[in-house]
Amino acid sequence: MDAKLAVIGLGSIGSMALWQASKLTDSVVGFEAATPAHGRSAVGGDTRLFRMIYTGNPGFYPIMERSRSLWAELEADTGQEILTPTGGLSIGTENGSYITSVLETTRVTGADFELLSHDDLAERYPQHNLHPDDVAVYDPRAGVLRTDRAVCAAIAAAKANGATVHQNTPVDSITETEDGVVVTSGDRTWTFEKVIVAAGGWAQRLMPDYLKAAVETKRLILTWFVAEDGAQFSPENFTTFSRVYDNRSMYGAPAVDGVTVKATLDGRGRPTPNPDSVPRDLTPEEIAETTETVTEFLPGLIPTIVRSDAFPELYTQDKSPLIGWMEENSRVYCAAGFNGGGFKMATGYGHIAAHEALGTQTFEGLDFVRPGRFTTTQPTPSAAAAQ
């Protein structure tokens, strides 16, 4: 054995799994196809939103709670500011489907929130051009995550704990044997007791056939604008936001660099057959819809895209991630398929993956993210993992 555990892919989730695993053992190795936080991975784009208020399965809430604590732990371990508190807004039509869904999930989870009327929202956050029937749900625990800084900090912390990192080492295959898992890159091989696959849009290549059929790589875009008054959109004065009105939807973050505001169309991912060749340039239609939406929602931004990019991400059929053993009695653990929304919970997902892969803890209440939901038989840890 070369080590107890390998983590394939050191991006959003893999970097955190490596860091968490390094707290449990110094016998852990990370593989990164390029370099940490490289510009073509789903880590790209400087920032991601952190929030405790959302729509969807309430089962994510405990992972969010754990993630928030672990972001603070990563900051303490590394001395880096990673999560900047700003508060957050979910803006939509009063009694409309979006706000109704946000409130339903929030009341089930018990998350702290404040319901802002149209007038309250207009007074506190005048940056938003509101429709007469707009209201908002305010999340006091939301903020902005620095993605590049977070990934690099986690990897550095893992190495300080004794982890080994191979960068510029793309993994070609993983093969399970009676004794372990053989990882191949070019003409080199290593053997590990267990392997975590956390390769984002590239993870599909390393999955069994039943999972390959259940996932799809999509292209996500990000866009930035310059504010006419930068101070108005600073983290002190402007929160993260997610906004839906009729057929328009957008999310964004304040100007953490003091200049540019992230404001991006939501839910516009489209299939891309190859994560290595995602078109980076926006289409004329994407540019038009983005600038029209910004003009309508945020008139304080100059309606010209000053920066844009596109990244690959892995989506599942049911829009829930894949966290768990690939197959029955497998030694390969999956941490992929986060549908464009995984970074806020990356530390929590990394914690779960590291502990379960090393057999130190099993987490209950996660049936909705287990890969086995796409088969008739739920995968279970191998006998060695349970010891």
> What oligomeric state best describes the polypeptide chains here?
single chain
Q: Any idea what the shape is? A: globular
Tell me, what is the CATH class of the largest domain?
A: Alpha Beta
Here the CATH topology of the largest domain equals FAD/NAD(P)-binding domain
Rounded radius of gyration (Å): 21 Å
How many helices in DSSP terms?
A: 9
Find the CATH superfamily of the largest domain: FAD/NAD(P)-binding domain
Total domains? 2
Low-confidence residue ranges: 381-387
Provide the fold topology:
Blueprint: E1 3-8, H1 14-24, E2 28-31, E3 47-50, H2 61-78, E4 83-85, E5 88-93, H3 97-109, E6 114-116, H4 118-124, E7 134-139, E8 143-146, H5 147-160, E9 164-166, E10 173-176, E11 181-185, E12 188-197, H6 209-212, E13 215-226, E14 240-245, E15 248-253, E16 260-265, E17 270-271, H7 284-297, E18 307-316, E19 322-325, E20 332-336, H8 346-358, H9 383-386
List keywords for this structure.
single chain; 387 residues; alpha+beta; FAD/NAD(P)-binding domain; D-Amino Acid Oxidase, Chain A, domain 2; 2 domains; 9-stranded mixed sheet; 8-stranded mixed sheet; 9 helices; 20 strands; disordered C terminus
